């Protein structure tokens, strides 16, 4: 009986790890560019036609400052160092912004998460 109770307790501890990660509703999907002293280049995935046309005319994508408390999560929800951001160049990520417009969270997205976010965006669009 004690072994059964211990096994059930262990299973209850494992279940949250199998649940996957929860992404915030305010997540903005896009691609990261390179990072330099001016900030990090970020191109949103949900651009309008005029924004894409402006991106063709402009020489560089818009740059966003990084907040001092930046958190970067890889595809397995592990923390990454901010010095590894150049390794994420041209990867599809999700970001959130703080009230000042700085990027404060970056999530590297997997293929299933990208599909789920695209589906969420199409359902939210009128």
Structural overview:
This protein has 126 residues and is α+β, with helices and mostly antiparallel strands. It has one domain (21-124): Beta Barrel (OB fold (Dihydrolipoamide Acetyltransferase, E2P)), CATH 2.40.50. It has 3 helices and 7 strands; from the N terminus they run H-E-E-H-E-E-E-E-E-H. A hairpin with a 5-residue loop joins strand 6 and strand 7. The longest helix is centred in the first third of the chain and has 17 residues, at 2-18.
Fold blueprint:
Elements: H1 2-18, E1 28-36, E2 39-44, H2 49-57, E3 63-64, E4 66-73, E5 79-80, E6 92-97, E7 103-108, H3 111-124
Parallel strand pairs: 4-7
Antiparallel strand pairs: 1-2, 1-6, 2-3, 4-5, 6-7
List keywords for this structure.
signal, single chain, elongated, alpha+beta, 7-stranded mixed sheet, OB fold (Dihydrolipoamide Acetyltransferase, E2P), 126 residues
